[in-house]
Structure formats: C-alpha cells, structure tokens
C-alpha cells in the first residue's frame, strides 16, 4: 500500500516526507494549496478537521499531526531503512522524545512566527510586524544557544545518533537559512552550524528539496 501525503509543498508535510524517505516507505503526494484555501474544503476537513497540513492516508488508516506521523512510521518500520530513529534503549527513546518536545514547544513557535511574517505575509503583499519578527528572532536565538551547548557535548540532539529529533528540525531551519536570509543564526554558533551541515546534507533531505 502506497502512503498518500497531503500538501508536499509546505514545511510540516516535508517533515513527514523526509521520514518516509529515511524509512524507505513508498509514498505519493496530493497537492493542497493553502493560498487558495484548499485546506478548508469540506473534503479535506473530513481528513484533518483543523484544516492543517499534513495528513496521511495509509490504506484505511488516516493520521494527522506531522510529529505523530513520524513517530508512527519510525515505530512501525523500526528495522527498515534508517534504524534507531527513536533510539535503541528506553533512555535513548526518552532523550529523542525530550528533544522532539523541545523542537515542538521551544524551537517551533518563534521560527513559525518568523516564517509567517517574513515569508507568507510578504508573499501576499501584507505588511509584516517588525516588532514581532525581532521578538521571535531573540527567542529563537536563546533556544539556539541551548542547542549550541547541547551539541558541544553530543553530535546530535539526543546523543551520538541521528534521530527524529534532528529530522524534525529540517523543514523550518531550511526556511531560516534560505528564503528568510537568516543563515547567520546557524553559522554564528559553531556546533549548531556543524550539526546543520550534517543533517541537511543527508540524501533524504536533498531528495525532498529536489522533489518539492
Ligand atoms: N501541528 C501541525 C501543524 C501543521 C502546520 O502548521 N501546517 C501548516 C503548513 S506548514 C498549515 O497547514 N497551515 C495552515 C493552517 O493551519 O490553516 C503538524 O505538525 O502537523
């Protein structure tokens, strides 16, 4: 059964797609255009009642929330493709979960604000809130300082192995270093910079960027 992923052009669906590639799971994509409001169509809302991307359909099974989806596939196909994305021991699993939570609750809110203000408002010709951008950049900087300290002690966030916690950072950090033109936030931090070079050069991520 080929997994269907809705909304491949956006960042959160890319979190799922990069995981499917790491796990060597076959998938196809269904475009959903947020600008046209296709995420609010009744047919889409039947799959994802909050109207957010992504959602996946795997046979009769439907699942939304990108981080729930990546956990699901990492667990379901533990020994296929890249293994140990959730760690090998319960302690490693705990650390992967800890850093996945940090990504979702500390890293994501400020970077999402910046993405919305800098990329999407500007794209629609709407004025950006410069104070909010500045405030979010400061918050994100403080989060990255914590990452710098952590990554001075281990190669990846959860330890010396690549995990879902690292993978989960790929799509929005790509916006930061690319179209948002704020690469200095990564490059000014030696260990964060080396970590970014490592994870963003994975074949799976290069494939995502090539495809979408
Ligand atoms: N917590 C959700 C959030 C997903 C999310 O923010 N998706 C964005 C695209 S990257 C979106 O669909 N925005 C439009 C909306 O939520 O109405 C997840 O991780 O799946």
From TrEMBL:
Class of this enzyme: transferase
GST N-terminal domain boundaries: 1-81
EC numbers on record: 2.5.1.18
GO BP, sorted A to Z: glutathione metabolic process; toxin catabolic process
Record's keyword terms, sorted: Cytoplasm, Detoxification, Transferase
Keyword Cytoplasm: yes
One Pfam family cited in the UniProt record for this chain: GST_C
Compartments where found: Cytoplasm, Cytosol
Boundaries of every GST C-terminal domain copy: 89-212
Main location class: cytoplasm
A single cellular component GO annotation: cytosol
GO molecular function, one term: glutathione transferase activity
Reaction equation(s) it catalyzes: RX + glutathione = an S-substituted glutathione + a halide anion + H(+)
InterPro entries for the chain: Glutathione-S-Trfase_C-like, Glutathione-S-Trfase_C_sf, Glutathione_S-Trfase, Glutathione_S-Trfase_N, GST_C, GST_Phi_C, Thioredoxin-like_sf
Family according to the record: Belongs to the GST superfamily. Phi family.
Protein's UniProt name: glutathione transferase
Species assigned in the record: Citrus clementina
Taxon lineage: Eukaryota, Viridiplantae, Streptophyta, Embryophyta, Tracheophyta
